Amino acid sequence: MRKRAVLLSHSPPRGHLDKTFIGTHVGSTAIADAVERYRPVLVVCGHIHEARGVERDEHTVYVNPGKAAMGYAAIVDVGTSVDITMLENGD
After folding, report:
1. Which end of the chain is more exposed for a tag (fewer CB within 10 A), N or C?
2. Poorest-confidence range of 20-29, 44-53, 70-79, 82-91?
3. DSSP 3-state assignment of 53?
4. CATH number of the domain where residue 20 is located
5. Structural domain for 71, as ranges
6. Residue 1: inside a domain, yes or no?
7. Which residues lie across from 27 on neighbouring strands?
8. Domain for residue 82, yes or no?
9. Number of folded domains in the chain?
10. CA 29 to chain centre
């Protein structure tokens, strides 16, 4: 059975939840390389506040819960699947 890895990082991986308000991708290529190598089931990142959201690809769910100071957060349930509930304004 394959181990189910989770990656927590301040910066996002390049190409996932890393687009600034002017549309530029500014994520880390090193983190993107680690995601490609280890294929975690979940990546939780922040740093790019305007890129709040959830993305999925073949192997990984990416979550940027957004700026906590604005009341944003995410609840993540990692079981047989990865389920995300995005919260805002202290939900």
Report:
1. N
2. 82-91
3. strand
4. 3.60.21.10
5. 6-87
6. no
7. none
8. yes
9. 1
10. 15
